[in-house]
Design brief:
The structure is a homodimer. Chain A contains 17 helices and 26 strands. By secondary structure, the first copy, chain A, is α+β, with helices and mostly antiparallel strands. In chain A, strand 21 (618-624), helix 16 (633-639) and strand 22 form a beta-alpha-beta unit. The longest helix of chain A is centred in the N-terminal third of the chain and has 25 residues, at 170-194. The interface between A and B is large, with 47 and 47 residues. Chains A, B: Residues 218-471 form the Sulfatase-modifying factor enzyme-like domain.
């Protein structure tokens, strides 16, 4: 590798306002994401200003590769806006976020800002909507950009700054805008690479690597088992997106990983082996993608007679066989499956955890502020990929840099994940199991993108400057739950059982469990049954005292929440705020002080009116808000003594909300006139529990609140009676 | 009339436990309903005991008219239980009510009590249910009756008694049981009268009047206008049923009333004039009844060749032409319509108020305790009707006694109506406009039935020992509202607006009105608009300060509640307690301190998104929980300044519960992402109200609670913003 060559290519643009006397940083490297701590406030202000201008300059320079106005208005690919949108979009993003932060009071150009607000970029997951756009001219957008640039520049001069800059600082939002523009620097470069050649031209600031040759023979390198620590906390010194926060610790079993990224040369063998045409190599989703697109080779490859060429951002070149193959997840995965099928070894992509293990064993660290990176990243060398054997990192090459690397891991929130209020949908819509993480960054990844902590994820069929490295590992890939419960009822119950207190009403299942435990007195507390456990809070709470607690509910979806908490310790859900607006909640057993009892609980799906015989021998049975939801409450109550030890306790709680939709009128045990007189449910309980039970406490009303929206709640009183089995 | 004869017929039975030395009351008259006040507790205890035994004796004596066992088990009419039921029923009633009162702890015979609890008697409104009954034998029921009698007797001996006896006294419930048995004494006598003759026989204790002759010529007597005072309060000295309580004052215009009850003779002219066959004489409901039953003459009349005979309780006699005609309301009404048609005068039945006016002008008072009554009532003379010219009362005859008299008035609750918790369905199911009051009592009416304050009502097609007196009056008959709102939503809103406070949350519409009035400061307060007024509470509350308040709601059913309150001052509704069980509520403007402002309010049905132009010139517009229920909230809000005076105040309150079922998503004014950012409803309000309004107070959350059942509530926060129209 010729570093001098590389250096010549890098020509960071200098901003108009740049005052060279203020700059302590060398200009050789494209400015890194700022350190948020420090003591020199004015120096920090200028560092951020320089970061801001350098970012906008570089972004605008990207558009200089476009040839003529038409290049801005013609869509490179059908599912994306034309590039004019992306030119405006990053500025509008500033306006929106600065308004949220209270840094500006009024929109700068409401019409443009409405047009440029919501795009369909490679970070996005929606299909392009069909709104008709009447785009402004390139000059108009450039004038708009300048206006925003001056506004932000003024804000950077005027807004009080204190260090370190935290989530709540208005400066966080300024950096958010800059980092957002850096993301689009990369994604717009991909769009330009997808534009037809006639619309683009080479540019001295975007010169690709000139080096290529025979690809090295790839090989597997053993990686010893080890622990990886992922995540970020809010005192970290660099800006991060929401998905980076929280923590995740994993024991990574030993595995083997390819020394190099898979090169074009190595990938060609898969094509030649009819890999694209062999269904069995493709996962189901990949098969559908291939069938839909009829792909026969990677998207940036061009077949010219017997020759292969490669499309770069602004030009086509003869296939550089030693550069990394750029593919989507499906293609990478099919390649691995082909290798597994032909070798008998368990080839696959690395997990995110394994990538971090590689990072650790390669001895890497974040891109230094004043020196060049250890890989082809952050524009430090080329405006393109380069050979896969150019940047050794420990025993490996390109653990970071060159191209992003697909993983097996759909993005998921770490425990402690938190959403920044000024960008509450940066990540959450991608927690759907359909967006896989890419790691390591590409030649153009800069700012936050280049950090070890960065976590970007794309739909598996999307293209970026992304390739892959394969691993051989015998351990099954663990998929992390990324699900936010959005079903209205389940979310409401999650909050009801594990969430906040409203109207000062204490947690209901917890209160009942406490009443039940108190009622046990000195009785044996071996086994308890939480019948109609719903989301399972009382099941866990009873396990504080009982050796073993069974939670049973008719709804498998409800007990799913208990099962998930017992298994993963975490439960996530959205809550309706107002209209379509939602807020995100994460609850953990640790946070609830229940982590120590999770091994004592077991959840089962079951019908309280037709319970399996094995559910017996309990010292306590708790049935909360259950009896008025059963189709035959008397059937349960007349036989419940068979499941309860003599002397055992039965706690019933119910608002007695009898409804025909749940319980046919003839099966109600109270709440009607009988023999001419009012016959309440408590009368019915006395009758149906008969001589086998003695009422030892209650009736007493215990309130509960179910949150429906930010302002609307169900507020109910449940009548609690505690009975002792006496016969 | 031969009073000696009459006296001989009356032979009150003496109870087994009767101790003649304790009885100060003469035995000549059947015991009257006891005076609930007094100072001699032991004497009162014995008076009640005597009242109890005398009532049961007389009731059992009634069954002595039955011939053989079959008479007990064969239904006299298809829609009634056989008489065995009624023999058991009055005892079971004691058990039920004594249990409610806590005077007994356990049922005496659960099986019989289940059978005998709910009957279909003439007080009832339901069709006979089809349950199969396996009746016990007469001896078994007699033994059961004895058991109850002894139990009650013991209770009378043992339960502490303090005077006066009020609603909450357990003694009230004892007297309730006795009065209930007295009602059945009368209704069972009607059933026996409906039994075929073979099942009954004459009995010396039930000897009918032996006197009859030519009927007197009836005539109209002028009654001067006057005020009548109806109702009873809880400090009254006699037992009353729920419907008697509260008060009602009426100015009765002058009218003419027939001197005598309509005799069989007088009624015959109607039959002979083909009255039964002439459709135009019959009201719609009466026409349906006649068509269904094919009646051609009164039910107790028998046509034998050219002769007419009359069925009495135990025998048939040649038609006593001077006795009152016994008919149902429909027949009485048709008779009046015939008389009106043939005379051109406005003949009709009296209203309840007019009957009370007759009572007053006749100078009547309640049956004396130790002397005979002034009419054929309370068994004081005969076990049947007697000639209509036997008992003069002032200028009239038979204002009380002989037979009940149908009125034009469906029973309705007086203001202040209250329900006794031990018999909560005595009257309420008859507040349906289909049960007309009968007044005056018959020869067998005794105890409470004989009191001036008594109010009994039957379906208009039912038969009792009932006839009628006609009046000629030019004033229209006022029908009183007897409606208890039972529609779930309307009832809930009635309670929400006018009812109790739950969870200590102050009344919501009242709070908003107070906020609005406070916000007015020194501004003119002429006209206010309560838009989306629902049940109208805020409309009334604003009228405390404004000269004129308009309440508008899309739902005519909701504004009906405001209209009713403004018109009648009272609103009644049921609330679901638990299952089918309900409680009754009555709210009055007086009770709410709003009586003085009722003339300032006006309610209109209207669409807030399409209001008529006349609704303008307001100093205040209040829109509570409205905007998120409109199909086009922006349409209202962008034009609302046209209805508000400059400087006027707009108070908006809403929980912003946007739902597609009310407002299509595209019409929401907030609660969604716009241009990529959260756009709340308050943002939308700011935008849509624009420069014409200035936010002068809020946002502030004001809570409200809607009661769904005794234990289940909606508890919601409504965001209040107060805006001043500035342009």
């Amino acid at each position: 590798m010729n570093l001098n060559d590389a250096r010549k290519i890098i020509m960071p643009a200098h901003s108009a306002s740049e005052d060279s006397t203020l700059h302590a940083l060398p200009k050789r490297v494209f400015p890194r994401t700022p350190d948020l701590s420090g003591s020199n406030v004015e120096a920090k202000r200028e560092e951020i200003r320089r970061y801001f201008h350098a970012t906008l300059d570089r972004y605008e320079q990207l558009f200089e590769t476009l040839q003529g106005e038409e290049a801005y208005f013609k869509k490179p690919i059908s599912l994306r806006h034309p590039l004019i949108f992306y030119l405006g979009h990053t500025s509008t993003f500033f306006t929106n976020k600065l308004m949220l932060a209270g840094l500006i009071k009024e929109r700068i150009n409401p019409k443009m800002e409405s047009m440029f607000a919501v795009g369909v970029d490679e970070m996005s997951w929606d299909d392009l909507n069909t709104t008709h756009y009447d785009w402004p001219s390139v000059d108009e957008v450039r004038a708009y950009r300048l206006k925003i640039r001056n506004t932000v520049d003024r804000i950077i001069s005027e807004v009080p700054l204190s260090l370190p800059i935290g989530w709540d600082s208005p400066w966080w939002t300024i950096i958010m805008g800059i980092e957002h523009e850096r993301i689009h620097l990369e994604t717009s470069s991909v769009l330009i690479r997808q534009h037809t050649l006639e619309h683009v031209s080479a540019h001295p600031a975007w010169r690709p690597c000139g080096k290529s040759g025979q690809a090295p023979q790839n090989q597997l390198i053993h990686v010893a088992e080890g622990t990886v620590y992922l995540g970020k906390n809010k005192t970290d010194r660099t800006y991060g997106w929401d998905n980076e926060y929280g923590s995740h610790v994993a024991e990574v079993a030993a595995f083997q990983a390819s020394k190099y990224l898979v090169s074009n040369q190595e990938f060609l063998a898969f094509i030649d082996a009819n890999g694209y045409g062999t269904e069995s190599f493709w996962e189901e989703e990949g098969r559908a993608w291939r069938c839909h697109t009829r792909a026969e080779y990677p998207t940036f490859w061009i077949r010219q007679g017997a020759e292969w060429r490669l499309r770069l951002m602004t030009e086509e070149i003869p296939m550089p066989w030693d550069w990394p193959a750029e593919v989507n997840y499906h293609e990478a995965k099919a390649f691995c499956n082909w290798k597994a099928a032909t070798s008998g070894q368990s080839f696959r992509l690395p997990t995110e955890d394994e990538w971090y293990r590689l990072y650790d064993v390669a001895g890497l660290s974040d891109v230094p502020h004043t020196e060049q990176a250890a890989g082809n990243i952050h524009f430090d060398y080329f405006a393109s990929s380069c050979p896969v054997n150019e940047f050794p990192q420990g025993e490996f090459y390109d653990v970071v840099g060159n191209v992003w690397q697909w993983t097996e891991t759909p993005i998921y929130p770490f425990e402690g994940f938190d959403i920044h209020t000024h960008y509450d949908d940066f990540t959450t819509p991608t927690f759907d199991g359909r967006h896989n993480l890419i790691k390591g960054g590409s030649w153009i990844s800069c700012g936050n993108e280049s950090l070890k902590s960065a976590r970007y994820a794309f739909r598996r069929h999307f293209f970026q400057h992304a390739g892959f490295r394969y691993v051989v590992g015998d351990t099954a890939v663990v998929q992390h739950d990324s699900h936010y419960e959005t079903d209205k009822l389940l979310s409401e119950y999650a909050e009801f059982h594990y969430g906040d207190r409203y109207f000062d009403v204490p947690n209901f299942p917890k209160s009942l469990a406490e009443l039940a435990i108190a009622a046990m007195g000195g009785k044996p507390c071996r086994k308890a049954l939480d019948l109609g456990c719903a989301s399972g809070r009382a099941t866990f709470e009873l396990a504080r005292r009982f050796d073993e607690v069974t939670g049973i509910d008719f709804s498998a979806r409800f007990i799913g929440q208990g099962v998930q908490l017992a298994g993963t310790g975490v439960l996530r859900y959205t809550l309706t705020d107002e209209g379509d607006l939602v807020v995100y909640r994460e609850r953990t057993l640790t946070g609830l002080g229940l982590d120590a009892v999770r091994h004592k609980v077991a959840f089962y799906q079951g019908d309280a009116c037709n319970l399996k015989p094995l559910f017996t021998g309990y010292d306590l049975i708790l049935a909360a808000n259950l009896i008025d939801r059963l189709y035959d409450p008397a059937k349960l109550l007349t036989s419940i003594h068979e499941r309860l030890n003599l002397g055992g306790i039965l706690l019933l709680a119910s608002p007695y909300t009898w409804l025909e939709e749940h319980t046919k009128r003839e099966a109600w045990i109270g709440g009607f006139k009988r023999d001419g007189e009012s016959f309440g449910t408590l009368d019915g309980l006395n009758e149906v529990l008969g001589d086998r039970f003695k009422l030892i406490q209650g009736p007493k009303e215990v309130p509960f609140v179910i949150r429906e929206t930010r302002r609307k709640f169900q507020h109910t009183l449940s009548e609690v009676t505690i009975w002792e089995r006496v016969a």
